Amino acid sequence: DTEVTQTPKHLVMGMTNKKSLKCEQHMGHRAMYWYKQKAKKPPELMFVYSYEKLSINESVPSRFSPECPNSSLLNLHLHALQPEDSALYLCASSQISGSGNTQYFGPGTRLTVL
Amino acid sequence: KNEVEQSPQNLTAQEGEFITINCSYSVGISALHWLQQHPGGGIVSLFMLSSGKKKHGRLIATINIQEKHSSLHITASHPRDSAVYICAVGAEETSGSRLTFGEGTQLTVNP
Fold first, then answer.
1. Which of A83, A98, B15, B19 is placed for a possible disulfide with B74 were both Cys, Cβ 3.0 to 4.6 Å?
2. Which of A5, A34, A101, A40 is nearest to B86 (CA)?
3. Are A71 and B13 in contact (CB under 8 A)?
4. Which parts of chain B register pLDDT below 70?
5. CA torsion B107→B41→A27→B32, rounded to 10°?
6. B97–A50 C-beta distance less than 8 A
7. Is A43 on the interface with B (CB under 8 A)?
8. Residues B104, A42: C-beta atoms closer than 8 Å
9. Which of B86, B70, B106, B89 is nearest to B3 (CA)?
10. How high is the pLDDT of residue B96?
11. Is it the case that residue A59 has pLDDT exceeding 70?
């Protein structure tokens, strides 16, 4: 199984809502990543978890809160988002963090903030 | 100047043509990745390179570490190859955990 799954596929939320994005992999990978991608732009790294611990936070606003409850699951909790946060949110995983490891990407969650 | 530069930004080809996409980078790297993104959004990792050349089906990727340059070639291109191709490098200084992405090359292959 070389698949990273993400739910939901699409999400529309208001600025006062609280929602969560979910990412799951069963490849035994110990590094998991959240990326944000705006239209016609490359992905931007948000967070990296290595062995279930947050290892990189790219100065992401606190309205985005990541969580890695176990080695297979990665969540991104959203609260009080702004319309400019509308984007495709991609999750990825790799065996461990580091360049010698291929990252496997999920299909993404397309988020619209009204 | 971006740390990772791709060219061309847009490329239109006829089915069957040989295609080359180039990537130049300015930082020390531990690995270079070529990724493919179809309009639906999902990203597929095509290659990871730290030296030499790799081939998978009709796709070939090469890297020249001294010149800090990589190329992705597609032989006998097909309309299903139409996608955005992204070059990304894992910087040595972060042990590659942080990928720096190029802006991508939009490839359209016409039948």
1. B19
2. A40
3. no
4. 1, 91-97
5. 40
6. yes
7. yes
8. yes
9. B89
10. 47
11. yes
